[in-house]
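User: Is it possible to get a 3D structure for a protein together with its bound compound? The compound here is flavin-adenine dinucleotide. I've pasted both below.
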Amino acid sequence: MAIDKENSIAVVGGGLGGAATAALLQQAGYSVAVFEQAGTFEPAGAGIHLTPNVMRVLGHAGIDDALVRSGYVPESFTSRNLVSNSVRCALPLGDHAKERYGAPYLTVGRSVLHRELVNALRPDTVRYGKRLVGVDDHGKGVRMHFADGTTAEASCVIGADGLGSQVREVMHGAERPGFSGQIAYRATVPADTRIPVDRRCITKWWADESFVIGYPIDSRSGDYYFVAGTAAEAWTHPQSWVDGDKDEMLDAFAGSCDEVLSLLRAARSLSKWPLFERPPLQQWGRGRIALLGDACHPMRPHMAQGAAMAIEDGVLLLRCLEAEEETEAAFWRYAESRRERTGRVQAVSAENSWLRDPEDPAWVFGYDAMTVDLHPPALIRNDSH
Ligand SMILES: Cc1cc2nc3c(=O)[nH]c(=O)nc-3n(C[C@H](O)[C@H](O)[C@H](O)COP(=O)(O)OP(=O)(O)OC[C@H]3O[C@@H](n4cnc5c(N)ncnc54)[C@H](O)[C@@H]3O)c2cc1C
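Assistant: Yes, that's possible. Here is the predicted structure of the complex:
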């Protein structure tokens, strides 16, 4: 029997991966509800790279034009030395990336992306204030339990609830993500602040233990954004980020070139974040429960692929639901189709080596989630995936 599109699919977590997956499922005719713990739409204010592999999907979802209007198409990704500012290499982007990969490389405010994804959903798709605390798979469907004491039923659950995923905890037990040994300062630099940096490009300055990456995020305002990462022994705060201290950041980057120091001094709205990661997961789901995005394969941000992987996951999940007769088989096939790619991206992200020296990024940017081969179906049905 084919999967019943009327039977509601629950997506837990309305972040970047959850909202994108729900929009793709709705566009394909599935009935979807998103359960989000936040009380209202809460866009986080930072920048994000949207590489051609994810822009292709966002084009398919019909939101690429709105993003291009708000964001910026950088001319290059230029690698420089953090101490001398000398150029290590430069990868042309702009028209070159669009011609080579069929979709642009864009940088944009994360909140703009999130807003466009949520706007792509039918009204009332997202149920806010629903913090999932438990899930039972009772064979014919799933029952979700929320912190406010309510429950909801669905045919299956997609856990898109991010780094501290409760859906993952239901399957694998409580297991905190590991601190990677790095923290990152994030800030914006308004257009009217003079900095000795080419605002048309993505520039990454490299040293052994530290890096700074800066890029434009808004073609209209001219705002620029940077992330400055450095080693730290531990993250001792209970929060997932804290306000950043500029003097502390400047101390950590003492000895950097004048261009970098000027950029760091120009910071507005400085925040400090821990970088967490988890090793690749063997079992992505069980029965009618599947994981995607950071819930499944969180990674350090050094390839700018965390959200891209979550959104690619959503496409492959949809394609497997379309290809299979039963949800369990679809979820198994989805996990098998995605594990190798996300594991490789996690490993390269952990190295912090992406585009430091000349390399061909085609294996990342050229991936087409809409047409890539699916893993062959299971000959014998396997309940864990
Ligand atoms: C410094 C930094 C820079 C980055 N830059 C990039 C970049 O340039 N490009 C890129 O592709 N990625 C980037 N990333 C990674 C990217 O932000 C994440 O990988 C992406 O947000 C993952 O999407 P997600 O949907 O899995 O999780 P999230 O976007 O985190 O969404 C999870 C959602 O689940 C909700 N939730 C959590 N628990 C529950 C619960 N129990 N019940 C209900 N709801 C719940 C949360 O409120 C949230 O809305 C960066 C990350 C960092 C830290």
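Residues 12-18, 35-38, 48-49, 130-132, 160-162, 166, 184, 186, 227, 273, 293-295, 301, 304-308, 310 surround flavin-adenine dinucleotide (CB under 6 Å). Residues 243 and 271 are 4 Å apart (CA to CA).
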